[in-house]
Amino acid sequence: MKTIQCVGILTSGGDAPGMNAAIRAITRAAVYKGLKVKGIYRGYKGLVTGEIKEFKSEDVSNIIQMGGTILKTARCKEFKTEEGRKQAYENIQKEGIDALIVIGGDGSLSGARIFAQEYNLPCIGLPGTIDNDLFGTDITIGYDTALNTILDAVDKIRDTASSHERLFFVEVMGRDAGFLALNGAIAAGAEAAIIPEFSTKDDQLEALISRGFRKSKTSSIVLVAESELTGGAMHLAERVKNEYPQYDVRVTILGHLQRGGSPSANDRILASRLGVAAIDALMEGYHNVMIGIENDEVVYVPFRKAIKNDKPIKEELVQVLAELSI
Amino acid sequence: MKTIQCVGILTSGGDAPGMNAAIRAITRAAVYKGLKVKGIYRGYKGLVTGEIKEFKSEDVSNIIQMGGTILKTARCKEFKTEEGRKQAYENIQKEGIDALIVIGGDGSLSGARIFAQEYNLPCIGLPGTIDNDLFGTDITIGYDTALNTILDAVDKIRDTASSHERLFFVEVMGRDAGFLALNGAIAAGAEAAIIPEFSTKDDQLEALISRGFRKSKTSSIVLVAESELTGGAMHLAERVKNEYPQYDVRVTILGHLQRGGSPSANDRILASRLGVAAIDALMEGYHNVMIGIENDEVVYVPFRKAIKNDKPIKEELVQVLAELSI
Amino acid sequence: MKTIQCVGILTSGGDAPGMNAAIRAITRAAVYKGLKVKGIYRGYKGLVTGEIKEFKSEDVSNIIQMGGTILKTARCKEFKTEEGRKQAYENIQKEGIDALIVIGGDGSLSGARIFAQEYNLPCIGLPGTIDNDLFGTDITIGYDTALNTILDAVDKIRDTASSHERLFFVEVMGRDAGFLALNGAIAAGAEAAIIPEFSTKDDQLEALISRGFRKSKTSSIVLVAESELTGGAMHLAERVKNEYPQYDVRVTILGHLQRGGSPSANDRILASRLGVAAIDALMEGYHNVMIGIENDEVVYVPFRKAIKNDKPIKEELVQVLAELSI
Amino acid sequence: MKTIQCVGILTSGGDAPGMNAAIRAITRAAVYKGLKVKGIYRGYKGLVTGEIKEFKSEDVSNIIQMGGTILKTARCKEFKTEEGRKQAYENIQKEGIDALIVIGGDGSLSGARIFAQEYNLPCIGLPGTIDNDLFGTDITIGYDTALNTILDAVDKIRDTASSHERLFFVEVMGRDAGFLALNGAIAAGAEAAIIPEFSTKDDQLEALISRGFRKSKTSSIVLVAESELTGGAMHLAERVKNEYPQYDVRVTILGHLQRGGSPSANDRILASRLGVAAIDALMEGYHNVMIGIENDEVVYVPFRKAIKNDKPIKEELVQVLAELSI
C-alpha cells in the first residue's frame, strides 16, 4: 500500500457533541506527523459533490468547546448507489486523499466499510453517536454530554412541586438502545426507565402502574426512550390519563436538544485520544477499523464487528436503578 | 389595626425559581425587624389543614440557590369555598399570624384578595410566576430563570446539523402570555415566535410558511407558546408534515423543566428586594397590595389592579425579532 | 450631513459577553434598512491598520450565543495620537464608511468622542462592559452574564464543607465600581461585599472582622472587588491569617473567566435592542450619543454625559445585603 | 463474625461532588436489604462526639443532585489519638452499628484502616476525592465533576480577547496528582499543564517559555496544579512578568469552587454503583476493602493497596496534549 500523505475527514449521521474535538485532534495529529488534511463537508454528500477544503492547524482552533460539527452532516442517498460512490472516489483521487476518517454511528461506518471494500481505500472509523450503541468501544463520542444534558433537564423537573400522584414522562433519545434512558434514570434519581431492550413499552408501563410507581408520597419521574417517531411519551401519557385519571401526568420531550451543547470533559478527552490514535493507526498501516476505547485503552475494532454486534445493557445497572428508586 | 408581630408565608400556584430566595428574604427581614415568621406548607392547603411551622433565620440558610419552593405548592379546592377559608382563618388565629404574605401568580393573589376582604387580614402579594403576566411589575420572580432555561435549550438545538429545510418547533410555557416565547426567540436568535397575543396559532403558522420561514439556507427554529394542553407544537408539526412534506420537522416540548433550576442572579436579587420590601410595607401599614418593581424601584400595586389588567407585549420587541431574523 | 449608506462597527476595551449579539443586531438591522456594514477588527487598531471587512447578514449567523467578540479587541496606542487618528480617518474614507458604531466601555467611548469631534464623523456608542459603570444606562452589555458567572462560582463554594470559622474570599472584577461584588453578594447569599465605593478595603475588612463576620455557625463568604492589581484578595487573606489565626481562610480569584461565557438572555436581548436602536438613531440623524436603556426604554445619552458621570450604588441594595446576611 | 444489621456512614476529608449520591445509594441499598442505617455527622468527629442519627429512605430523597455532603465533613484531631478512637468505638457500640462505611480520600481510608484493625470492626471505604489519586480504582467520586468545572472556567477564559502574547495561568487543585491539570488541559484545549509528577514547577515554566509557549498568534492558557499553598500560580506569573515583560500575564485561582457543584452524570452513576456494591460487599462478608471500579467492573481493593500505591499519569495523555497544542 502506498504511503499515506493526505487524510480526508468527514462527519456523518446525527451530530454528537465532541465531533469538533475529534476533527481538531485528527487535524492536529496529522499536521504534527507531517500529513495533509482535507475536510469534507456534509458527510458523504460532500464527497460526492466535491465540497472539500484543506485544513490547517489554525482551522481547528477554538472549536474543541463547540457542539455540532464544523464539517456539518447530511443524509446522502447518492452515496448509497454505486454511481454515487464512483463519483465520490473520483473526488478522492482528484483531491489526492489517501485515506478517509469517518466520524459517526452505525450507518456511517457501514458506508465507510462498503466504500473501503469497493475502492481499496484505507478507512478509519471513529464512534460518534450520543446513543452509545456501537459494539467494541466502552463509550462513544457524544454519549456523556447527552447524558448530562438529560440529567440537567430531569434535575429541573424534580425541583417543581412535589405533590402526590404527579407523574412526569421525559422522552429521551435511543430508539434502539436504552443507555441514555437507563443511565439517565440512575443519575437523575428517577423512578424508572422504559427502554427498548425489555418488553414493549406498553407492557413496561403496565408493570410500573401495577406497582404503583412508587410507594413514597412525592411525584414520580419516568424516562422513556423514544419510539420510531418522536412523541411516543405523549401516547403513554394519554393511556395513563384515560385509565388512571387520579394521576396528574406531564410530558417533556427533549428531542434534538440532546444532540447539542458544549461537549463534556469526557467527550473531549475521548475524542482527542481517538483522533490522535486514528492517525497513529493509519501510519502503522491499519485500515477498515473503528478506533474504540476498552478498559481505558485504545483498541482497533474491525468494521464488521463494530457494526454487526449489539452492545448489551449491564444487568448490574438495572439492579442499581431498582434498588435506589424504592 | 393591631401591630404586626407574626407573619405567615406561603407559596401558591406553579413553582417559579426564586420562590426560595423570596422565602429567605421575607424570613430574614422579618427576624431582623423583630417579627416572628411562620411557614405555611402546600399553599392555601396548609392554611386549611394547619400544616404550619415556625421559621427561624437558619431555617432559610442555604436555600437561595435552590429551584422549587421549600414550602411546596399545591392546588386547594377547599380554599375556594367559604367553609375552607373559615377553617384557614381559624388556623391563622390559632397560630397567632397577624399578616399573610403570598408568593404566586394571578390566581394566588386573587385568593389572597378575597381572603383579606372576608377576614380583614393584612395580606401582601409577591409576584411569583415564570410567565411574567402580572400587571404592575416590570418583571416577576422566576421569569428570568425560565427565559435562560429556554435559551439554553434552543442554543443546543441550534448546534445540530444545519441542513436545508429543517424546521424545529420548541414548545415553551405561556398559555396566555407570549413573553417567554417572544423574548426567548429574540435571545436565542430563533426565526419566529407563535404567541397567544396575535392571531390563532394556525394563522401564525400559515404566515410563517407563506414567507418560506427564512430565506437563508440553514434550519429554522420557531418558539411556540403552549396551548390549553401541552403538545400543541406536535399538532403544528403534523400540519406542516402533511401539507409541506419537503420540510423535515422536529419537535421539542420543554414542559415543566422550565419551572425548575437554580434561580438566576436577577431572580434572586428581585426576590430579595421584594421580600425585604414586603416586611417594610407591612410595618408601614400597607396591606392588600402586591409588591412589584417598576423602573428599578419598589412599588405597591393594589391587588385589583395587578389581577385585572393585562400586561402588554412591547411592540418594539416584535420589531426587533422581525429585523434580526432576516 | 450626507445620507448614511455604510456603517463601520468595532468592539473595544475588555470583552463583554453579548458583544457578538450586538454586532449581529447592528449588522442585520443595517442590512434590513438597506445599509452596507463593515466590520473593523481589533478595535481602534484595525481602524488604524485598515483591518476591515464587509459584513453580510450571514456573517453574523450563529454568533448570538458566543462569548467574546468575533471582531476581537486590542489596545491601541496609535489611536491616542493625532497621527494615528488621521490614519484611521483615511481608512474610514477609503472604505467609504459614513458612520461608526463603537461597542465598549468608558475609554472606548472617549476615543469615539474625540474622533467624532476631530473629523466630524457620526459616531454612536453602545455600552459594552461587565462592570456596569456607564452613566445614562440602567445596565451595560455583559453585566448580567458576569453576575451569573460569579453566582455560579459562589454557589459551588457554598456547597463545600460548612465548618466553623472558615472564611472564603472571592475576588471579582470591578476596580472602580462595586456593582458585581455587591449584587453578586446579594444574589449568592454571601455575607458581605468589599467594594471601592466605601472606605478602604482594609477598613472594610476590619469592620467585618470586628462584627465576627457572622453570628451563625457556618462558613462565611466575602466578595471582594479587585484592586489595581489582580490578587488583592490574597493580601486580605494574609492579613486575616496573621492577625486571626483561628480563621481558616481560602481564596478564589475569578479573573478573566468573568469576561467570557455564553451571554445570558438579558444580555442578548439588551444587545439586540441597542443594536437595532443604533441603526435607527443614525437614520434619524443622531450622532455622538451612547444608546442606553432607562426604565426599559431606549434612550440616547450624549457621550460627555455617559463618560463624565459616575453611576451610584443604590442604597437600598446595601441595606438588602445587610438584612439578609444576618 | 456476627451478622450485620446496622451500618454507619460518614464522609471525611475534602468534599467531593457525588458524596450525597453515595450516601443515598448506601442508605437505600441497605434499607432494600433490610438493614438499618445511621448517618454520622462531620466525619470522624461525629463518631467521637456521638453526632449520629438514623437514616430512612426518605432522608436521602432529593439529595442525589446536590454538591457537598449532607453529613458534612470536618478535620478531627481526636480520632488520631487512641483515646479518641476509643470514644468513637464506644459510640459505635452504643448506637448498635455493626459496620462502618467511610467515603473519602487517602487520609480518610487510612483512618478507617487503623480503626478497623484496633477494634475488629468491618469497614468499607468508598473513594471520594476530586483529585482522583487513589490506587485501585480507575476513577474517584467527584473527579469528573471537578474536571468539568475546570473546563467550564477555561472555556470562559478562552472566549476573551485573543491578542498576541497574552498568557493565562489557571490554578487548579491537585497538590500531589496532576490528573485535573493534565486532563483539564487536554479537554480545554489549553497549551500546557504544569503538574507535580514532572520536574519542579519553575523548571516546567522555563521549558514552556523557552519553546515560546506556542507558535500561533492567539493567547496561551496554562493549567497549573496548586502547590503546598494556594496562590502558587501567582508566583509563576510574577516570574514571567519580571523576566519577560512582553507577556501580558493574567491569573485565575479556582480554589474551592472545584469542590462544589451538582455532580455530573458520571459521578452520580459511579457513586450509585459503589454505594450498592458496598452493601453487597458487607453482606458477603468482605471488610477492610475500598470499593473501586476497574474496567467498568466493581472491584474490592484491600485498604493497604489503595493507600500505599501511587496512581500513575498515563503517558499517552501527555503525548495527546503535546500533539494537540501545536
TrEMBL record, chains A, B, C, D:
Concerning InterPro entries, the annotation shows: ATP_PFK, ATP_PFK_prok-type, PFKA_ATP_prok, Phosphofructokinase_CS, Phosphofructokinase_dom, PKF_sf
Q: Where does substrate bind?
A: 129-131, 166, 173-175, 226, 250, 256-259
State if Cytoplasm is listed as a keyword. yes
Residues annotated to bind ATP: 14, 75-76, 105-108
* Class of this enzyme: transferase
What is the required cofactor set for this protein?
A: Mg(2+)
The keyword Cell inner membrane is annotated on this UniProt entry: no
Boundaries of each Phosphofructokinase domain copy?
7-282
Note the Pfam families from the entry. Answer: PFK (PF00365)
Q: Which HAMAP family match?
A: Phosphofructokinase_I_B1
Q: Return the similarity comment.
A: Belongs to the phosphofructokinase type A (PFKA) family. ATP-dependent PFK group I subfamily. Prokaryotic clade 'B1' sub-subfamily.
NCBIfam families under this entry?
A: PFKA_ATP (TIGR02482), PRK03202.1 (NF002872)
Q: What is this protein called?
A: ATP-dependent 6-phosphofructokinase
Q: Which organism is it from?
A: Bacteroides coprosuis DSM 18011
